Amino acid sequence: MKHLLSIAAALAVLAACEREDREFRPSPVATEGEASITLSSISPGVVGLGTPRDIGKAYEENAYHLSEGKRLFNWFNCKGCHANGGGGSGPALMDDSWIYGGEFQNIAQTIREGRPNGMPSFRGKIPDEQIMQIAAYVRSMERQVHQDAAPSRDDDLMPRPSEHRLPTSPPVAGGTVPPSGQAPQ
């Protein structure tokens, strides 16, 4: 009887305990916020920090965000449709003709929501931060960002290897020796 009472008391205590809900690792997609669809550049009130234009500028002027955008462009296989920006089954990203607008917020919206006839929606699949980085990189393909921050072309896209990768050539006989070459070393 004594054991029965102790077991019943233990069960009552365990039933009264409430398990704590823990989130060990928040989902990166959970950081996604509501994004408004920008149809016009006109906005009420004073234009200040936090407008979509300022947000885009922060990404477009940052070399880290641009290089991450380039990495993510390859990672999510955007090359599959847009090639290296010149277009393929998807539209070209290097020219100045844009179906849905070439502004930063338009490109980010296209990536986030997708477009009819081929462009899939990445909403809920990748965080907003990465969408912004890809949009900034796409704008860099069109040379709409500062060139000192924009990532360079891949080596396989260059018309010829860079000078330091060329094989050494033998010296050419003839010519004149410059005065600096005649001075004692």
Automatic annotation (TrEMBL):
UniProtKB keywords: Electron transport, Heme, Iron, Metal-binding, Plasmid, Respiratory chain, Transport
A matching Pfam family: Cytochrome_CBB3
Species of the source: Rhizobium fredii (Sinorhizobium fredii)
Keyword Transport: yes
Cross-referenced PROSITE patterns: CYTC, PROKAR_LIPOPROTEIN
GO molecular function annotation: electron transfer activity; heme binding; iron ion binding
Keyword Membrane: no
Annotated ranges, domain Cytochrome c: 64-142
Residue segments, region Disordered: 142-185
Name of the protein in its database record: Cytochrome-c class 1 protein
Required cofactor(s): heme c
Coiled coil (residue ranges): none
Biased composition (Basic and acidic residues): 142-166
